[in-house]
Structures are given as structure tokens and as C-alpha cells.
Amino acid sequence: MTKIRESKLSEPPSGRGAFSSVRWAPTASAAILLGLASCGSKQVGATVEAPTLARTEDRPTRKPDAVVVEPPAAMPTAVSRADARGVVMLREPVAGDAVRDLVASVVDAWQRESLDALSSLLTADAGPFEARGRGRAALIEGWRQRLRAHPYGKLAGVELVRPERIERWESDDLGSPDAPARPPDLRPGETYVRVPVEVGRVAGEKFFDDVIVLVVRRDDGKYKIAAYGEVAAP
Length: 234
Hints:
Elements: H1 16-45, E1 78-79, E2 89-90, H2 96-111, H3 115-119, E3 122-128, H4 135-149, E4 167-170, E5 191-196, E6 201-202, E7 205-206, E8 211-219, E9 222-231
């Protein structure tokens, strides 16, 4: 019969060394636990301050970058015609229909003996054709005297002018061999108009001279009379 000998490793520890190992184990564990708890308590109790964002009204306003603004180029004076070179500005010519409509309004005002209608066709600085410096009041007063002296109502229904015979010249065209002489005080942008009168007399009474002469220009979007006169046919 064989006996099985127990190993010394299975024997319970004896002596002082075994006792001190048994006592050390719980002490070390407690120390570790206390250390972890201490670390944990510091992490939990720590306060982390988040970065604060400045309010919109507290932020400095960023100004836009400077922009260099160049002054507009100087434009040349507007003219009726010019050679095809350099930079030129052409003035819009007076439309034939606009001139004919203005002349028709003048004739209608005479035939209706309406001083108010005639006055409404004038620019603020209008004057007599031969002396524009006399002003608007002098021109209107001359019309007033004529309306009192002659019964212009007798001309109602009479074809005083024929639209196809109306002539006009831009200010730059006057003075050439094929154009009439430049009217006095004609200003840039104004147009000279000649209106032959078909019927200037009725029953021997004179109402108009042979030709009505006008200086017209655009005023408030409409063509108006800057100077009015009447002359004998050349």
C-alpha cells in the first residue's frame, strides 16, 4: 500500500512571516481604496470654468475697408452735331411732332382769345423775340393789348398755318449759308422755329405778320416758348 505524502505547499502557513502577510493584505487594500477615493473626490469636486463668449453688443464693430472713389469724368458740352473723334455728347434734337403740337397750341390760343392759354406755353424766363431781356411780363402785356384791339375770335376755324411749312434749326446749325441769321440771345439747347402764316388778314384787318418766329426749348419735360415774335416775309 502506497502512501501519498502531502505537499508542503498545501500546509497552512506558520510562524511570524505568515501572520504579517495576513495583516498586510487588508491594510494595503484600504490604502489603495483611500487613494482612489481621494482622486475621485478631487475630480468630482473640481469646478471647470467654460470660456465665456463676448456679447454681440460688447464686441467692437468692424468697419469696412476703405474704398477709393474716383470722381466722375467731366462730360463735354452737349452739341447738335460733331465730328467723329474724341468724346462728344450729342443733344437730343427737337422732334418735329413736338414743334407742330406747340405751334398748334399757339394758334388755338389765339383763335380762342385766351391769354391764359398763351401764357401757359411760355418758359419762366421767356420774353419778346427782339428783346428777351424785357421778360415774360412785357410779352404777355403785348398779347393782352392785341387781344383787346382785335377780334381774334373771327379766326376760329381758319387754317392759319400749314404744319408742313414749319421750319426749325438747332442752335448749332444757325449761321451757316443755308440757315437764317442767329436770333439774338439764342442759348445752347434752344431751337429756332419759323412759322409762315397763311391767313394774316381778315376783311382788311391785320391780325398777324407774315411769319411767327419762336425760340423753343424743353422745360419740365415739355417744349415751351422762350421767345415769341412776328416778322415780315424776307
